[in-house]
Amino acid sequence: MQEQTNTIQKWLNDLQHSVQAQNLEQHMALVSKRVQVYGLPRKDLVDYQQWQQRRRNEFQTQSLIGLQHGPVRVKTLGLLRIAFNIDQTLITKEGLVYIINKDIMLEKEADGVWRVIEETIHYWNQKQYQIAAGEHE
């Protein structure tokens, strides 16, 4: 179980670093080409292309400046798949903070890399914070 927990933490850290670095290639390397995201408002399903387009826009406009994760609640552990629940916090340069509760499923793909294959968003909260000048630069 410790190995799977380390896998989850490494994937979350890599995801967080890709957002901080605004590195689209590094970010999308963590996402399966077969990914499916459920539970977004006004969208039945988000696939790889839509995820990539959204992140490209967020990185180009530097609107997404941070990503944080709460405690991991493991749901299922397997040799090739790991499922867990987490609260993910997205921080925007405008001071909007989205706290999203979601299930994430990682899959070890044929190349040996763990990637997100599925996300299900259960609920989210939005908060507005005042960001000090220069804090997001």
Strand % is 35-45%
Please write the string of helix (H) and strand (E) elements.
Answer: HHEHEEEEE
**Beginning-to-end CA distance, first to last residue:** 39 Å
How many H/I helical runs? 3
Q: Please give the number of β-strands.
A: 6
How would a crystallographer describe the biggest sheet? 6 strands, mixed
> What structural class results from the helix and strand content?
alpha+beta
Ranges where pLDDT stays below 50 over 5 or more residues in a row are: none
Using only C-alpha atoms, the radius of gyration works out to: 15 Å
Q: Which geometry do the CA atoms define? A: globular
Helix content: 25-40%
Question: In terms of quaternary structure, what is this?
Answer: single chain
Average residue-wise pLDDT: 92
How does this structure look, described?
Strand 3 and strand 4 form a beta hairpin. About 10% of the residues are buried. The protein is globular and about 45 Å long. It is of the alpha+beta class and about 140 residues long. The mean pLDDT is about 90. It has helices at about 1-20, 25-30, 50-60, and strands spanning about 30-40, 65-70, 75, 80-90, 95-110, 115-130. Strands 1, 2, 3, 4, 5 and 6 form a 6-stranded mixed β-sheet that branches.
